[in-house]
Write a structure and sequence with these properties.
Number of strands: 3
Structural class: alpha+beta
Shape: elongated
Radius of gyration: 24 Å
Order of helices and strands: EHHEEH
Strand order of the largest sheet: 1-2-3
Number of helices: 3
């Protein structure tokens, strides 16, 4: 269990039931096309690797925010305000 094995796309296509039986038995399979990994099939409930998000998650660097004429707040004041938002006690 927990092994990662490569399965060519052709084998997945021609022997789907046999490949899926391996997954059901606990194997994690990497599907390859022309020897290049293209995806993984993992047993349900098995923790996945790095999550894939439909949006960017990498740091964007320094942000130049415009001055909207509001009160000048410190980072701590902003943090305290945001912590209270959405709480059940409100």
């Amino acid at each position: 269990m927990g092994d990662t094995n490569e399965v060519p796309l052709r084998e997945l296509n021609q022997q789907t039931s046999r490949v899926m039986a391996r997954v059901q038995a606990g194997e994690t399979l990497t599907i390859t096309k022309d020897g290049v990994p293209i995806g993984d099939i993992v047993p349900r409930g098995l923790p996945l690797g790095r999550p894939v998000y439909p949006f960017r998650t990498e740091p964007m660097g320094h942000l130049d925010l415009p001055d909207l004429g509001g009160p000048g707040l410190t980072d701590d004041e902003i943090d305290a305000t945001l912590r209270g938002m959405g709480s059940i006690d409100d």
